[in-house]
Amino acid sequence: MAESSNSKQETSKEKKADGKNSQTATKEMNTEAMNPEETAQTTEPQTEAPAQETTSQTDELGAAKKEIETLKDSWARERAEFQNFKRRSAQEFTSIRKEAVKSLISGFLNPIDNLERVGASAPATEELKPFVDGVGMILKELYSVLEKSNVFRFDPKGESFDPMSMEALSSEEGEQYSEETVIEVYQPGYYYKENEDKFPLRPARVRIGKPKA
User: Fold this and answer.
1) Where is the composition biased (Basic and acidic residues) (predicted)?
2) Are 206 and 161 in contact (CB under 8 A)?
3) Residue 41 phi, psi dihedral angles, 5° rounding
4) Total domain count for the chain?
5) pLDDT tens, 113-161?
6) Domain containing residue 182: CATH number
């Protein structure tokens, strides 16, 4: 009998607990039904967060693209300035080297001219032949030394007159001349050569023949 009484009491307690739980669940459902805005507000941030992240990523990407374009423009300007600097430096180096060679070589030209006169004016006798040959050998060595420094001698006899590299000391007219032509060289000229460019160091002094006016 005691066991039956205890069983009834436990059953009664369980029913009361189930009733309370049912009432609590009903209240929660009613609260949600009465406050739909609060429920919606609670769930809204979950949908707004991805949109905010996407906007932020778009802004960062745009800023990165602008920075890349700025860096590319800066690099292009720096490269152009460097190329101009290299070009100016090469031109300045060529000019400085040309002036240095001209200053150095000009001191040797008069002695070379004198040796050439000796070889040209000495009579061709047996006694003087060894001396003249020796002078000729010295001149060849001097020409070789000059050529190693890109300095070349030129004798323009028979060529067209070039006022940039020649100086006409006298002239004559004749029907045999179709253009101004060098007919005699009083003094050979010298020029300095850098790659394909030629820079006169001393003009050739010449006599020219001109067609009749």
Assistant:
1) 10-19
2) yes
3) -65, -35
4) 2
5) 988 888 777 666 788 888 888 888 999 999 998 998 889 999 999 999 9
6) 2.30.22.10
**φ/ψ (deg, to 5) at 18:** -65, -35
Residue 63 to residue 61: CA distance in whole angstroms:
5
Q: What would the two tokens of residue 160 be? A: 């067209």
* Beta carbons within 10 angstroms of residue 133's beta carbon: 11
**Cross-strand bridge partners of residue 93:** none
Using the 8-state DSSP alphabet, how is residue 163 labeled? T
Residue type at position 24: T
pLDDT(33) > 50? no
| Residue 167, beta-bridge partner list | 205
User: Domain range spanning residue 157?
Assistant: 150-212
Do the domain assignments include residue 11?
A: no
Residues, the chain, total?
213
